[in-house]
Amino acid sequence: TILANPPSTMMRAILSLAVVAGASAFAPSAPLGRVSTRAAVARGPRMQQMSEAIPFMPKPANINDSMPGYSGFDPLGFSDYFDIKYLQEAEIKHGRVCMLAALGMVFPEFGKLPQFASFSTNPLQAFYEVGPGGWAQIFVFIGVLESFSYEKVFYTDKAPGDLGFDPLRMSKDAATAKWYSRAEVMNGRLAMIGFSGMLHHAILTKQGPITQIIEQNFVPSGLGST
Questions:
Q1: Whether the Cβ atoms of residue 62 and residue 80 lie closer than 8 Å to each other
Q2: Could you give the CA distance from residue 109 to residue 144 in angstroms, rounded to a whole number?
Q3: Which of 22, 50, 126, 134 minimizes the number of CB atoms within 10 Å of its CB?
């Protein structure tokens, strides 16, 4: 054994082992298994898709371009927490209500139905001139409509907004139905913004939108004076 040999023999053995170890460090190693490009791409990090509407925010995961009016806009993440079909139904419903409301803001300044002849053309004042019977009809109608809407959303396969009401047959074929579905959503969004603007100006000026335009009364009295 090494321990039985004199010190010179032990030193030669240690040096021989050191040379072998040093040489093995420079010896070529066994070739690594070849990794295909496809495997590398599949395992690599994926680039996050960004929203079309807000390029610096991630694309919403639960909405896509098959939905009418799709624009990739959901900055508050409602589609991550609520049923997407319910959200579509709510948007279409509010858009329809605001399209009627925008028309109702303008129409009284051109003409009134006989039973409303005494009502003010200021929408806010006319709001308080509606009697209890009128409000009862409005709330009953809303309740009935909401009950049908709830059942349709959660217990049927009908598309959002589909009430089976199409007297002008605008959805007679798939292409036409798709075009009008998108047009309704886009016009509904515009109506929601437009109605909100008209209501805001009515609060400030106490006038209807047409009177404001004719009189150019866009700034409330007292705000622009010095």
A1: yes
A2: 31
A3: 22
Tokens of 207: 């006038």
d(CA 159, CA 149) in angstroms, rounded, equals: 11
Crossing angle of the two packed helices 132-155 and 84-106, in degrees rounded to 10:
150
How far apart are the C-alpha atoms of 193 and 204, rounded to whole Å? 17
Answer yes or no: are the C-beta atoms of 163 and 148 closer than 8 Å. Answer: yes
Separation of first and last alpha carbons in the chain: 110
Provide DSSP, 127-165.
HHHS-HHHHHHHHHHHHHHHHHHHHHHHHS-PPTT--S-
Per-residue exposure over 73-82, b if at least 16 CB sit within 10 Å of its own CB, e if not: ebeeebeeee
> How far apart (Å, rounded) are the C-alpha atoms in residues 71 and 59?
10
pLDDT in tens, 81-129: 988 888 999 999 999 999 999 998 998 888 888 888 888 888 888 888 8
In the prediction, which pLDDT does 23 show?
46
Examine the pLDDT at 33 and tell me if it is beyond 70.
no
Separation CA 75–CA 52 (nearest Å): 12
pTM comes to 0.69
Nearest alpha carbon to residue 201 among 102, 129, 116: 102
Length of the chain as a residue count: 226
